[in-house]
Amino acid sequence: MKYKTIKKLGNSEKIFKNSIFLGYASPINSEEEAKTVINSIKSNYNDATHVVYAYLIKSNFAMKYCDDGEPAGSSGKPIINIIERKNLKDIVVVVVRYYGGTKLGYGGLVKAYGDTAKEAIDNGEIIEIFEKEYFEIIISYNLLNTVKKILQNETILNEEYSETVKLTVGIKTEAVEEIKNKLINNTKGNIKIAVKK
């Protein structure tokens, strides 16, 4: 399985009818991290008119958005809609608004918050994450090159050399069965593969 998130903090700045909108998109792994990001931005912009946010967490399917005093559905909802449309997970997006004296109307708010969020997300660089399963593989030295060739597109996290070679590897979930079969067949069964806990 794979999913999309962003690589790094992305930000944006937009002006709509003299209102300033500052967008921040951050990769996260939990609701606690999302709340930390939100609270930090609220603290940094404690003089802002509104601090609107939305987040979506993959592990527990948590999704939340907040309009922070803007008309219901005009600000947090457009942000979560963009997150969902881009099929992103493990992300929080916060948009800060400084009111500029002119009301934007419902449609104007949807556009302002949505455009600011979209630009912040895009600046965070969308990436694909492949879910992995982790294994310890024990082989003799003479099989090392064969095994490494099979694992060339996977992640070798650690190599230990003693009487045998022990590799700790992360294998993309969707490729686990295929890789395990190749390892067993190409080593003629002279391999130990154990799930890493």
CATH architecture name of the largest domain = 2-Layer Sandwich
Q: What structural class do the secondary elements suggest?
A: alpha+beta
CA gyration radius, whole angstroms: 23 Å
Instruction: Write out the CATH superfamily name of the largest domain.
Output: Impact, N-terminal domain
Strand content: 35-45%
Domain UPF0029: 137-189
Protein name: Impact N-terminal domain-containing protein
Pfam family, one: DUF1949
Family: Belongs to the IMPACT family.
Topology, element by element:
Blueprint: E1 2-6, E2 10-16, E3 19-27, H1 31-44, E4 50-56, E5 63-66, H2 76-85, E6 91-98, H3 105-123, E7 126-130, E8 132-139, H4 144-150, E9 155-161, E10 165-172, H5 176-186, E11 192-195
Helix pairs in contact: 2-3
Family: Belongs to the IMPACT family.
Organism: Methanococcus aeolicus (strain ATCC BAA-1280 / DSM 17508 / OCM 812 / Nankai-3)
Domain Impact N-terminal: 17-121
